[in-house]
Structures are given as structure tokens and as C-alpha cells.
Amino acid sequence: MLNEVAVDRVYLAQGNTDMRKSIDGLAVLVQEVFELDPFSPNLFVFCNRKRDKMKILYWDKNGFWLYYRRLERGQFQWPSDKHGSTPLKISRQQLRWLLDGLSLEQKQAHPEVMARTII
Question: Considering the entire predicted model, what is its pTM?
Fold first, then answer.
């Protein structure tokens, strides 16, 4: 389901978030703390203190989606809270890495190639 959504950007809440927050609580965080629009076509990603639970908030036409992932073993490679309440803008590829248990910076990943036009 997550692969099918038309997303402009992915914003990661650095540090930890209280996973007792539901859609309304997370939307308030996005609006008041991140100073972003929760109704925009973006994914807003949150993780708990133990790094084994993740929530993703997404607005779709007439309602919110709340994706929830709980790991039975292991932890997400979550970035620390270096910049306070500033969300970290990441790519969809980096989100897939996080969901697969990898870090955001993959040294072995192929760099993105931009096609050049020959005139």
C-alpha cells in the first residue's frame, strides 16, 4: 500500500516520539512542531524510544492513513535528535532502507544518475 501513494516528500521526526499518539496527535506535531502542513502529499515518519515501532502519517484525499510497523526483533537505524524539532527530509529510497533495517547512508548504494541531453 505504501508503494502506491503519490508522495512529494518524506519527513522523518528525529529522536523519539510517544507512540501513544494517534492520527490527531501526530498531525498536531507536524503542524505545530515541524511547522508543516499535515494535509500535504508528504509522508511523516515517527519512531519510539526503543526504535522497534514506527508510525507513518499520510493524508489521502478525504482522510488520513496511519501506517504502523512493529519489529519482533531488532531496531530501526534511526537518526539521533541532533537538530531539535527539525524534521529530516529523506528520499523514498532512504525510507525503504529504514524499513529494511538499514541506515540512511548506504555507502554501497548506487548514486542517482541524471540523464544528460545531447544537443
Answer: 0.83
